[in-house]
Specification:
elongated; 289 residues; Rossmann fold; 10 helices; 7 strands; alpha/beta
Length: 289
Amino acid sequence: MKQQIYWDKKQIAQNYDFGRPLSNRSILELFATISAKLSISLNNKKMLDAGCGTGRVTISLAQSCPSLSIIGIDISPEMLAFAQQKIKQSHLKNYQLIKADLQHIPLDDNTVDFSLISSVLHVIPGWTQIIDELIRVTSTSGYLLLISEQADIYEIEQDRTKSQDRNLLEKFWGQFQKLKLEYGLSIPQKIQVGIRWQLGCPEIIDYLQKTGYQNINTITIPWQHKYTVADFMNILYKKCWSALFTSDPIKYDQVLKKMEQWLKQEKISRDEEYISDNKICCEIVKLSP
């Protein structure tokens, strides 16, 4: 019998940026590096942010480059509502939002100069159709911008990195993983049904190269983010990541109580800090021969 996950889409959207912080400085540095190394300008151009979510990647670009016109498309009305709040608060005139399915993008052929996609294709099994759609709506002289991210906090939370109790991050999230196992908490549905969540997009690159696109450059920007133990606990309480929604919210609450007890037992202050190492990567695919 298929188990049910108790999703709260509004809660995910509301806490998305808190759980997945992204440095505006790193975004601007990334595109400044792209411009300098590849002589690509955003001025007076049009960009599609496919699966824009709350606009965490491209709103800072819209702010820094007023002549860049951005179209953000997402299927989630909850995510778009928070993106609209940011646009209104920032008084942006160059950012348009559209609710749509990325497998059927409501734009004409050759509409935009850049098609950017980030943190989307790992949850979509038919991701090649989306790539084909991005190519269709992008100018033949334009670019695909494939954004991926990596952070030590994601690696250990997803249990890719095993805790060795070497630092605050490993101690905290290692304890959380132990308690999840103790209480039998797991994700009954597989979240990553598309490409693997990782730095770089080798599956997409392989698909594009087989399709005939060979002019591909990669630029990666490292950056850091400061967390406190209070931030870690807030990520758990707010369920900032989809992987924190389970089929048994009662057991999940019991795990949180155990985490609070563990912090007191270990005398770990909620003010203790951890500096997280992060990377943001962009693979720039030139569509012209």
